[in-house]
Amino acid sequence: MTDTPLSGRIALVTGASRGIGAATAIALGARGAHVVLTARTAGGLEEVEEQIYLAGGSATIAPLDLSETDGVARLASAVSERWQALDILVLNAGMLGTLAAVPAIDMKELAKVLTLNVSAQAALIASFDPLLRRSESARVIGVTSSVGRTPRAYWGAYGASKAAFETLIASYGEEMRNISKVRTAIVDPGATRTKMRARAYPGEDPASVKPPETVAERIADLAVEGFDPNLRVRVD
To answer: Which position among 154, 158, 172, 201 bears the catalytic label?
Structure first.
């Protein structure tokens, strides 16, 4: 690789076994970062790891269900034992749940959506905060959805979780603004060819929307660029 602006940097990408997470991990690896890949599916992570290695990069897989109690803390402990700092944290993992009218929302499923999309994200920020602060220019990048800011019928549960997710990241960015080099950004990928998108829009032609690599390239660019706290980006 000749263009490696992230050489020597450590990145952690959640939901890295497929879709935007996998593409982002590959893009970061291509720019020289050592990428820690986490998701529930070990097989998918191994495939992404192999792609990164074949392109000349390096990666470590860490299969993990983020909703498991103490799972995030264990991951942070393992990362801190190997590296002194975390330079890039991409919060991509998320759960769509069932699209339903608000009165018809299944409360048990809602709890699962909020656990993964909100509670686990807060745990990731809290657990990796010490390592992020040790970085010379840490980047925390969250992948969101437009329904977090623009309510849409039948998307209430998922939209509410993304609104809370955005608030967590933005609040953390404000807290870090004057006391550290940690900077936060929120990326709205727009219509993108993913399995989650296919579930939400089963009749849509996948070829009619952009591939996850387009979003991944923008996220990887943000990991290289300097930006003000709480940047918000939409990828069209």
So the answer is: 158
